[in-house]
UniProtKB/TrEMBL annotation:
Residues 5-192 form the Flavodoxin-like fold domain. Belongs to the azoreductase type 1 family. The keyword Oxidoreductase applies. This is FMN dependent NADH:quinone oxidoreductase. The lineage of its organism: Bacteria, Pseudomonadati, Pseudomonadota, Alphaproteobacteria, Rhodobacterales. Keywords: Flavoprotein, FMN, NAD, Oxidoreductase. Binds 1 FMN per subunit. Also exhibits azoreductase activity. Catalyzes the reductive cleavage of the azo bond in aromatic azo compounds to the corresponding amines. Quinone reductase that provides resistance to thiol-specific stress caused by electrophilic quinones. FMN binds at residues 11, 17-19. It catalyses: N,N-dimethyl-1,4-phenylenediamine + anthranilate + 2 NAD(+) = 2-(4-dimethylaminophenyl)diazenylbenzoate + 2 NADH + 2 H(+); 2 a quinone + NADH + H(+) = 2 a 1,4-benzosemiquinone + NAD(+). One of its GO terms (molecular function) is electron transfer activity. InterPro entries: Flavodoxin_fold, Flavoprotein-like_sf, FMN-dep_NADH:Q_OxRdtase_AzoR1, NADH:quinone_OxRdtase_FMN_depd. The gene is azoR. It comes from the Bacteria. HAMAP family: Azoreductase_type1 (MF_01216).
């Protein structure tokens, strides 16, 4: 059975990117071990930021939206559908200035939609994307992953959990500027050792 994968590249670099290289290696493993149907969303192709018009359209009941409002939400609808269709989400996460890239934050804002990817209940918000898995390939020059100055991994893990994706694993290629070769070698080994079973 083909495994549906959503690949999200958040690196602004299309060449020489550690996180992209790690996702390439992960995809190759999935393809070698039973096949994969891969949808790629490259965030180097900048996404628009949400604005007042988008928010107004999003909070208008679907049946009452004007053609202009439906058009304004079309990209967001597509991004949500990509998430809903995926069994596994692979995210390349470079840490920029201690946080997630602006392009990834824009993606988060476009997919976190009440009634589609989460809902409010008397017991608090509930994610609607349960049963999925996420693998995050972290790359940083100097920031240590999961340290007190890393605001990227905690943010992304919380957002994924908020949407219902609680099975989140991280591949670390952090502090690469200290020893690039050893860092990439270690991260590649972690990719090769990762269990692909959901």
């Amino acid at each position: 059975m083909t495994h549906a994968i959503l690949r999200i590249d958040a690196s602004a670099r299309r060449t020489g990117s550690i996180s992209r290289g790690l996702l390439d290696r992960l995809i190759a493993r999935y393809e070698a071990e039973g096949g994969a149907q891969v949808t790629t969303r490259d965030l180097a192709d900048a996404l628009p930021h949400i604005d007042e018009t988008w928010i107004g359209a999003n909070f208008t009941p679907a049946a009452d939206r004007s053609p202009e409002q439906r058009a304004r939400l079309a990209l967001s609808d597509t991004l949500v559908a990509e998430l809903q269709a995926a069994d596994t989400v692979l995210i390349g996460l470079p840490i920029y200035n201690f946080g997630v890239p602006a392009s990834l934050k824009a993606w988060i804002d476009l997919v976190a939609r009440a009634g589609l990817t989460f809902r409010y209940t008397p017991d608090g918000p509930q994610g609607l994307l349960e049963g999925k898995r996420a693998v995050v390939a972290i790359a940083s020059g100097g920031t240590e992953a999961f340290s007190s100055i890393d605001y990227a991994t905690t943010h992304l893990k919380h957002v994924l959990g908020f949407l219902g994706i609680h099975d989140v694993q991280f591949i670390r290629a952090d502090r690469a500027m200290s020893d690039m070769e050893a860092t990439v070698q270690s991260a590649n080994a972690a990719v090769d050792a990762l269990s692909l079973a959901a």
